[in-house]
Design goal:
The chain is about 20% helix and about 30% strand. The chain is an alpha+beta fold and about 200 residues long.
Length: about 200
Amino acid sequence: MATGAQSSPSQIWHVLVIDDEQGRRAVALSAATYSIGRDPSNAIVIHSAAVSRQHALLLRLPQKDGQYTYRLLDGNIEGKRSTNGVSVNGQRCLSWDLKDGDQILLGDRVRMQYCIRWLSDEDFQQYLQSVSFRSVKAEVVDRRSTTLQRFDPPSMQAILSQEETTEKIEGVRPRRRHPLRLLFQTLWGRLRGKLR
């Protein structure tokens, strides 16, 4: 009969420790795949403008001994690579079979470390608390929801000055436009440019 004083048997835990703009956190890995990027629809959301919306993938690989490890792939599920790339242990790569202690760099700012720990449940909980653990499964992400992102539009004076300068160069008498309409036209043009 087991008593409360006895510790639970040890098992292997896979952890990804992430350092991004919101600080340090640890993610316990157990699923078959994880998408990594700044878009809220990713399984592991990275808070950094230097990271692509869908920057990388983690794929679980079974081992002969019944255990598993993870392979890191640069890019998304369709094979489109990230803009700023992935490095493991200082070496740029497209694919890497991760080992305990591997240092990962997404772009040039976000650092991660892949760790494998052989711990009891209690020891693992203490380990996670020491690196500010945050469970991926605890965060519910609704793919239909949108997130509010900070946007600093150019000042209205700069927009008006640009319009007036263009009209003077073309020899057309400057005409006053409603500032909101002008702002909308400028934003719409920029959005269309990004979608192309």
